[in-house]
Predict the 3D structure of the following.
Amino acid sequence: MFLDLGNSGAGVYDILMARGLAEIVRGVNFGGKAIKSDRYFNKRAEMYGEACNWFNGELPVQIPDDEEFVNELFAVKLGDDEYGRLKLEKKDVVREALGRSPDKADAFVLTFAEPVYDLGRPRMYGNGNLSFEDLFADSARGSDRGW
């Protein structure tokens, strides 16, 4: 799971780490360094660029029939920096053009944060003693813990 570390994401990340989910949760800093730093200005540009490559690839793709989501994807303008790397316009400019943050598009491009490999076998979550159902079982009791 890739989690945006901006705004309140860092707090959510800390909670998930405390629950023993370090193996399956990756924090992503949109302004951080790209894996392919020779092609992308930063992590945000890399994720949008890799999403664009996915759309233009050979395999057929499907996305939700969601006008807000599509508008957010097209609101992000692409350009190049002085080294020829993909650079996106600042998020503040995108927010102003849309009248809101492009949260759906950002959530979508997070799926391109790192390569993901499926080993084809089910796994336990967290520390090995916590099932997926157990992971969220106490969310209704959050108020008992001061959350």
User: Anything to note?
Assistant: Strands lie at 2-4, 26-28, 78-80, 86-88.
